[in-house]
Amino acid sequence: MTRYPRERIEARLSYFSIESAHRVFAVSRMPLSIQPSPSRFCDGASGYAVLYAALTFETCIAESLIRDRFVRRTRRELPLAAVLIRAHAQIATQPNAELLLLDLRDTGCMDIGAPTDAARARHCAAGQSLGRAIYTEHPEIDGVIYASRLTGDDCFAVFDRALDKLIVIDACELKDHPQLPEFLEQGGIQLVDD
């Protein structure tokens, strides 16, 4: 017996073509390169990996770099090194390809019987448990679409088994991305040397 039976999952499955999404990754890696590591929908120990991307540059940076860094802080300072070790990629689905994604936006978690913490909590244990269950129990599912807990915008978590459905449109070092200065200025964020 599965934890998330197909009849519960079915109503929350949709095919998505991604025209443009943003991803931040280590500058030493390739844009679509991933490895198992603890994250929202991966515990890092269950034998699979997840690629994360966001529809907007702002959400991508908030999810990958800012998170809760400024909670209860007077000054909004970001170490320059945190930017210099990262790169940015704009990705999309292959022409004529679609991802079969579990939609956890809105009432998604409630509809499938998963804890809402799976998609919205600061701590990732519930999401890791859900990700592991979906990955093992539903091999046809390519990943998850969910709302960023930080901005509310759409984010994608794509399982390693679906990476061949993605392409890189453009890539650069994060420090060279044209939207970074505006993001920092609007957020009142200063880059500082460590």
Structural overview:
By secondary structure, the chain is α+β, with helices and mostly antiparallel strands. It has a single domain (6-192), classed as Alpha-Beta Complex (Diphtheria Toxin, domain 1). It has seven helices and ten strands. It has helices spanning 6-10, 57-66, 80-84, 108-112, 117-120, 125-137, 180-186; strands at residues 13-16, 21-26, 50-54, 77-79, 86-93, 99-103, 143-147, 154-159, 166-173, 190-192. The chain has a five-stranded mixed beta sheet with strand order 1-6-7-8-3. A three-stranded antiparallel beta sheet has the order 2-5-9. The longest helix is centred in the last third of the chain and has 13 residues, at 125-137. It is globular. The termini are far apart. The mean pLDDT is 96.
Helix and strand layout, with pairings?
Layout: H1 6-10, E1 13-16, E2 21-26, E3 50-54, H2 57-66, E4 77-79, H3 80-84, E5 86-93, E6 99-103, H4 108-112, H5 117-120, H6 125-137, E7 143-147, E8 154-159, E9 166-173, H7 180-186, E10 190-192
Any descriptors?
single chain, 194 residues, alpha+beta, Diphtheria Toxin, domain 1, five-stranded mixed sheet, three-stranded antiparallel sheet, 7 helices, 10 strands, globular
